[in-house]
Amino acid sequence: MKVLFIGGTGNISVSVSRLAIERGIDLYHLNRGRQNVTIDGVKTIIGDIHQPEQVQAVLKDQWFDVVVNWIAFHESDIERDLRLFSGKCGQYIFISSASAYQKPLTHPVITESTPLANPYWEYSRNKIRCEERLIRAYREEGFPAVIVRPSHTYATRIPVAVGNWASYMIPKRMLEGKPVVVHGDGTSLWTLTHAEDFARGFVGLLGHPQAVGHAFHITSDFVLTWNQIYEQIGDALGVKPVLVHIPSEAIAKVDPDTGAGLLGDKMWSVIFDNSKIKKFVPDFVAQIPFHLGVHRALAWYQADPDRMRVSPEDEAHIERLMAAYPATI
User: Fold this and answer.
1) Do both 9 and 131 map to the same domain?
2) Which of 95, 138, 146, 261 is the most exposed place for a label (fewest CB within 10 A)?
3) Is residue 23, in this structure, part of any structural domain at all?
4) What does residue 44 show for φ and ψ, rounded to 5 degrees?
5) With b meaning 16 or more CB within 10 Å and e meaning fewer, what string describes 2-40?
6) Per the confidence metrics, is the pTM higher than 0.85?
7) Helix locations, 23-95, DSSP H
């Protein structure tokens, strides 16, 4: 099976790429070649997806059994891909987001039929517009679209809600005995998924003839409170974290960007029904609970001192939130 990943070197797609190669898939990455990521067995095609003429020139008339776009965020990206790949692939997978699901939820368990509506976060609304355009292309033109909605998926990230999760800042603060911010009272429920677990479900969809026209979320079945998430980070570091609880609405007043991701996603309890992906990929099961997965994430940072460097801006962000909170009540 010949598969093209647009992107392929990100937080989730590296794990997916490795598993795809392990399972004998003929995998190509289309990217600008600027990421310092090497995956044995992947063939790299140098091209910028944002320059369609360049992509057409490097791909020529190649046929791909599957095309996966990991970096499409706007409806215009979908329009471009429809022009590039119509008639040139057997399956096109769009990476959407579980944050597109209805906020607030009217039913506590999320299935793929949960309505899509997010009045708080533009990122999520853009993903919804992408989905709607693809579904229209599938219905009207037979374009072989598949939609996949990851939720909070991590590998070389520390999956926190407040602060730069692509930074060692939160572990560093915990080790130094400094407080870290948890939104709300920390008791809302959240689902974390290790990228290797996500990959097991996702690779099973590649080339699956019955998946076309369908949407799937792929998450673990491990549900934690946010307090437990931060406590398990601390446990992995061997310290008891100092947690400062600030309402999501107050955080949004001080930092609208972080606030959008809280009000539009992480402040709500989310529990996913994964029965659909398990029916299509019967061997899919999440195997890495967070108390184990967090050790892997921390080990990745600790393997290279450069990765553990924390920018003053990240530190200042947390201090600013804690200083501003009394004024935002």
Assistant:
1) yes
2) 138
3) yes
4) -100, 130
5) bbbbbbbbbbbbbbbbbbbbeeebebbbbbeeeeeeebe
6) yes
7) 52-59, 75-85
